[in-house]
Amino acid sequence: MMSDALSRNEVAAPWVIRCHCLVHGRRQFSDLEAIFPVECQVVLEVLKHVFDHDEEARDQQMSPSARLAYHQELSRPLMDALKGWLDQQVADRLVEPNSALGQAISYMQTHWTTLTRFLEIEGAPLDNNLVERVLKLFIRQRHNSLFYKSEYSAYIASMLTSLIVTCIYAGINVLDYLEALQEHRAEVFADPSAWLPWTYPASLAPP
After folding, report:
1. How far is residue 40's CA from residue 100's CA, in Å, rounded to a whole number?
2. pLDDT by residue for the chain (207 residues), tens digit each?
3. Of 20, 85, 112, 166, which sees the most CB atoms within 10 A?
4. Sign (positive/negative) of CA torsion 12, 16, 20, 21?
5. How many other CB atoms are found less than 10 A from the CB of residue 187?
């Protein structure tokens, strides 16, 4: 399970592998860069390399096991050095614990294990950006729903938003999909599961 470290996102279940979003940890330092440029640059530079490694793994379409080995070889030494630097700031009293920088460092230290799952578990993501981008679309739709003429209109718009976003993330042409639903209305009502964005092309194939 991937999210930020807000308490409302915590799930106490033995089958859940908890991951925390490294972007949230990074953002606390990027927001303070103008005030603590030297200290923040240490953290931001390390994390830049780590995210570059993850992008390279995606570009090369590495398998989860190959990606894990890649991060363990290149990212682990960087993250280990960063952890040592963070601990030193606190141990040597180089930062005020109650300052904004101290709190940013504390966040990283407190959640270090869950922030670095990508170094231990195959396929563990670095961040929650994909989900957050999708959620923002529906938050916007919720606000837009206030201005529809009827509750039913808002319902239809929400349903279409869900279909369109699903098509986008499934790599399906949205216009082709919506046209197919209209052209095969009877078949859709008879077997909806065959006409989901990721299954409908098979329904169009000749018997």
Report:
1. 11
2. 555 655 555 666 665 677 789 999 999 999 999 999 999 999 999 999 999 999 999 999 999 999 999 999 999 999 999 999 999 999 999 999 999 999 999 999 999 999 999 999 999 999 887 777 777 777 787 888 888 888 898 888 888 888 888 888 888 899 999 999 999 999 999 998 888 888 887 766 655
3. 20
4. negative
5. 16
d(CA 172, CA 163): 10
Q: Which residues contact 156 (CB under 8 A, 6 or more apart)?
A: none
32 CB-near residues (< 8 Å, 6+ apart): 40, 100, 101, 104
For helices 37-59 and 64-91, the axis angle rounded to 10 degrees is 170
Domain range list for the chain? 2-127, 130-204
Q: Is the dihedral of CA 185, 187, 189, 191 positive or negative?
A: negative
Contact in structure between 2 and 116 (CB atoms under 8 Å): no
Output the pTM of the full model.
0.69
Residue owning tokens 């989901």: 196
Helix axes 151-170, 129-144, angle to 10 degrees: 160
Q: Where are the alpha helices (DSSP H) in the chain?
A: 22-30, 37-59, 64-91, 100-110, 112-115, 129-144, 151-170, 174-183, 185-190, 200-204
Tokens of 128: 């929650």
